[in-house]
Amino acid sequence: MFELQLLLSILTLSFTSQSYSSTSQLSILHHPKPNPLSISVIDFGAAGDGVKYDTVPIQKAINACSATVSKHRRQCHVIFPPRKYLTATIFLKSGVVLDIHKKATILGGAKLEDYPKDQSRWYVVLAEDAADVGITGGGEINGQGLKFVQRFDEKKNVMVSWNHTGACLGDECRPRLVGFIGCRNIKVSDVRLIEPAYWCLHLVRSDNTTIRDVTIYGNFNSPNNDGIDVEDSNNTVITRCNINTGDDAICPKSSTGPVYNLTVTDCWIRTKSSAIKLGSASFYTFRNFLFDNITIVESHRGLALQIRDGGNASDMTFSNINMSTRYYHPSWWGRAEPIYVTTCPRDASSKAGSISNLLFVNITATSENGIFLSGSGGGVLSNLKFINMNLTYKRWTKFPDGLVDYRPGCQQLVNHQTAGFMMEHIDGIVVENVVMKWSNDQSMRWNNPLDFRPSTVNNISLLNFYSRSYQQ
């Protein structure tokens, strides 16, 4: 039998060597992919003075690039030389990449008439049902979000809403910055996304996206200016990004379908809300997520799972994360929790979801509050592992503690003693190689490393768990 297998292997190798000649090998080596085509917006009449609207010439350049893609079957770059380009919504098309050069800026208009009638299409840059699209070049897209601030407030800015025009309902009537809806094969790299009036970079029902070397900045006191929202989108990689914004930094949402295969690595985050937040839109499954080598600085919450609408979250790893979390103002959801894992019905009409198979490993945190793990009667947390963690708890702001924050929905704010780990409605938790230190400052009132009720928490394993107070 062995001799027969060996003979077949030799024959196969001989056939392959003959059919794949040295000439064909050289042909592959010396015929790289052709360079992408390029078209400049200046050639189509863009003024680039930051005052006159350049929407028409920009869109003409994109359309011409798209026609070139169809003809030559090659990707086409729309070039923005170093100038400022004021525009209403521009529509990106298949095979087209916006190449915004360094010191070039696309400015989003601040008027209602700058955007389509349909609120779901309110973006400065929008791609719909497109493939092989992207943004790059080292330049900037700026939503001029500060033009939407009606009153500046260090607690939370009051924002201009187009609700009063009847264009939409609610106080979140503002345009997003960049959107990909129903797209595939997206690449966003080496670009600055600045001052969105609402969400910044939004993926909707899209597949196979890479976001690399992107800087996102939003006003720290403006609400709803999320960094990256991954909504109903799959196979997403986010790496080497710097996000500094007032609301959630990276936020997967499952509104109309599942979200799976999300990888986030090598990022730096500062936010007045949650650095990583799953939900709160959580109607479908979240699965196969990896968050690795992330630095979180002075955020209101660190790693947050908020399952409120009956969905399920499972199979996730949070590794090699260094963070600091602090209190800001009670109007923002969160109480400075480094890790916040919760599932409960949003309201009486909602179902309880579930969370399972989470691994937190190699985590260092300095925080003003403890870890909060809360399932619910209809949706327990199961198989949670916390391994190799160094937790330091101390206070450096003057906001009152002694509250547990379930928001959004659920029980809202509840008076409760502060604890290093607060746990309820859990089945299966491993805490291994964890060092917990807390300041002996009398204002903190720390005296309980673990807080749980045996009636709702089962199957606990503690190995090398060490806790003590320390002198500041």
TrEMBL record:
Annotated ranges, domain Rhamnogalacturonase A/B/Epimerase-like pectate lyase: 39-98
One Pfam assignment: Pect-lyase_RHGA_epim
Region forming the signal peptide: 1-21
Gene Ontology BP terms: carbohydrate metabolic process
GO molecular function: polygalacturonase activity
Keyword presence, Signal: yes
Record-stated family: Belongs to the glycosyl hydrolase 28 family.
Name of the protein: Rhamnogalacturonase A/B/Epimerase-like pectate lyase domain-containing protein
